[in-house]
Write a structure and sequence with these properties.
Chain lengths: ~210, ~60
């Protein structure tokens, strides 16, 4: 029991640390988010309570219970830190998509990067919704925790890679948008021309008939 | 300083419950006292209210 919890806490902490470094490196705003750091500190505080018992610095009644309780609390704090970080990451991802592509039409996005509407957009919607839900419930007792964390960190990394690929297609989007605008301009010109011809024919017919 | 180990080890860490604009101003003002993250020393971090506001704004903006 105790060994399992220690293993879980250490594994969680490594994942949290990796995600924090990743988030800090990739955030486009160059702004840090401190709440996860506070959660990590609180987690370390619980781990040190366990350490104090192990080293005989403190003596507690029912030491096994005390140790297990503190390890569970440490895991809880690392878990919260993780979901704070992925929430921050998913927000940045969403913001980067909005900022990069807000000025392009649905037609061009669909034409130049068809995978966006088929997979990327639904994935972003799903991930940000799910992460917000988990963060709100903070369901620490879930036995699938580590698997869930691995799933979300991999998903976010994959999504980021896909978005980076999409950004590389931006010149194609600009080109498509220009062609579309040119086409619209031409069709408007034709409409004006047809209208002018109709008016001229109408006027000529009126003149002939009168 | 004398202290009771058992009491101290089980006490909660006095970490801020909330990161505010005041915390940022204080951090920048006292940044010469500590080494560490340049971003934090320059006040480049979200306050809790800023983070929530940004979160709400981003989530309410529809994706293209």
């Amino acid at each position: 029991m105790r060994k399992d919890l220690e293993y879980k806490a250490t594994k969680l902490y490594i994942r949290v640390k990796a995600m924090y470094i990743y988030a800090e490196e990739t955030t486009p705003q160059f702004q840090d988010f401190l709440q996860p750091v506070f959660e990590i500190n609180r987690g370390f505080d619980h781990l040190n309570r366990v350490r104090a018992v192990d080293l005989g610095i403190t003596v507690v009644d029912k030491s096994e219970e005390y140790v297990v309780d503190n390890l569970n609390k440490a895991i809880g704090h690392f878990y919260r830190a993780f979901f704070d970080i992925v929430d921050w990451l998913s927000m940045d991802l969403r913001a980067s998509v909005t900022e990069e592509f807000e000025n392009f039409s649905y037609t061009c996005i669909g034409k130049v990067m068809p995978e966006y509407y088929k997979e990327i957009r639904p994935e972003i919607e799903e991930v940000s919704k799910k992460i917000a839900e988990i963060r709100a419930t903070k369901d620490v007792g879930n036995p699938g925790t580590i698997a869930l964390m691995e799933k979300y960190s991999d998903l976010l990394e994959e999504l980021r890679a896909k978005i980076v690929k999409l950004v590389k297609k931006k010149p194609g989007l600009i080109d498509c948008e220009e062609r579309l605008r040119k086409g619209q301009r031409n069709s408007r010109m034709w409409q004006i021309l047809i209208a002018l011809v109709c008016v001229a024919v109408g006027a000529a017919l009126t003149a002939i008939l009168s | 300083m004398r202290f009771n180990v058992k009491e101290i080890i089980d006490a909660s860490l006095p970490l801020p419950k909330k990161v505010t604009q005041k915390s940022r101003e204080h951090t920048i003002k006292e940044s010469h006292r500590f080494r560490g993250s340049v971003r934090i020393a320059c006040g480049k971090f979200y306050t809790d209210d800023e983070f929530e506001a940004r979160r709400k704004k981003i989530l309410s903006t529809p994706l293209p």
